Fold this sequence. Notes:
mainly alpha
Amino acid sequence: MRLLDDLFASRRALAGFVVIGLGWAAFWAQMPVIKAQVGVSDSLWGTLALLGSAGGLTSMWLAPVVERAAGRWSMVLGIAVMLGGLVAAGLAQGPLALGLSLCAVSAGAGIADVFSNAEVSEAEAETGRSLMNLNHGMFSVGYAVSAIAVGAARAGGLGPVTIFVAIAGLVVLVTPWMLVRHRVDEDDMQDSAGMPRAIVWVGGLIVLSAFLGEAAIEGWSALHIERTLGAGPAEGAMGPALLGIGMAVGRLGAHLAGARWPAMRVMMLASCMAGIGLALAAAAPGVTTAYVGFLLGGLGVSVVGPLALGLVGQAVRPKYRLVAISQSIALGHAAFLLGPVLMGFVSDGFGLHMSFYVVAAILLGVAALLVPTWARMLSRR
């Protein structure tokens, strides 16, 4: 019953997270057919994805402006932009159209992501319960379900536009749940001068480290397994799959465990686990050891970001909560811009396994230095 109560308490955020997961999984599951339809090279595809991510980061910083303009409909607006971008991507016939579509998808999803996290933070303040891991875990569940369903739809002969329109139709059913609450007066929203920016930004850097570990496994584990360890495509695909499994298990398990462990201790241990997992994958003599490393990495990074965002929301006054969450998430999502650059340059110079060592060192450094520093900053407030 407590789980049902937690789901109901965070229902607005839950709707947003699940829909974002449905949309992104539907896009990436159809990446091969959309890429072939547009006719772009691997490098140009990567550039378009990078530009799309930049659009998402920009929208996250502008989320407070969106709330002033759209009020309770802010999350719905973000989801509508995301879905419109998905349909446009399904219709795209050239790189320019696809690039603009990806910017719309990322911008809309970024806005919805900020409001979803802000709603969780509000629900945590009201209930006194930790709800971030539950909601981020449901994003992973929605992502997995969508990927499987879209794969079946593709096998049945359905094209991207049909699939995206069908998802949009499903989203209409949960629109009432995505009407966010009115948080503060207009005058309060104009003033964030009293927000503790150092606390918000250090928290964002901790989120960035977790997302960096996630991006490393998501984007490079299959290549490491296939190229470095000489495995086949099916074995390589298990790298990202184990990341998803580890993240879903870690987040839902952390929620069910409740507040038995202090959040700072959990973040330190989880960052260490993720760092050790990536180092183990880098040093792996065979595929099985790499699998264990990537699973540990997924388990570790799964809880760091949600816990840090939850603490950011608790550390600021209610009128600053949306601004604080938007800035922390934007800093965190910078990992998806920095990650490919870091991994690629290190890999070119020293080998792909060294890239994983570098990210492992960052995660261990965060556990040893940044998390304790942040804990002292929070304790002084």
